Amino acid sequence: xxxxxxxxxxxxxxxxxxxxxxxxxxxxxxxxxxxxxxxxxxxxxxxxxxxxxxxxxxxxxxxxxxxxxxxxxxxxxxxxxxxxxxxxxxxxxxxxxxxxxx
Length: 102
Description:
Helix content: 25-40%
Largest sheet: 3 strands, parallel
Order of helices and strands: EHEHEH
């Protein structure tokens, strides 16, 4: 399973933050890094404040299980959307506790 990082920088990220996420993605061994091509924030939102909690906020074991189900039905790559570009710790957790089990 290929894991790729996808970002939405128009939601409030600066160049330096986006560069840090791209570099961390490469260093941690993700298969690819993408950024959206939207110029303006969607829905009038310019930051992450007020966003609902993610429905995928699960433990690494639960994420591995969910990815396994996608793989079982034929998925070969998965795009992980990263919303909090200021916190790279979650990328490290995905690389060390999820990718190693796939």
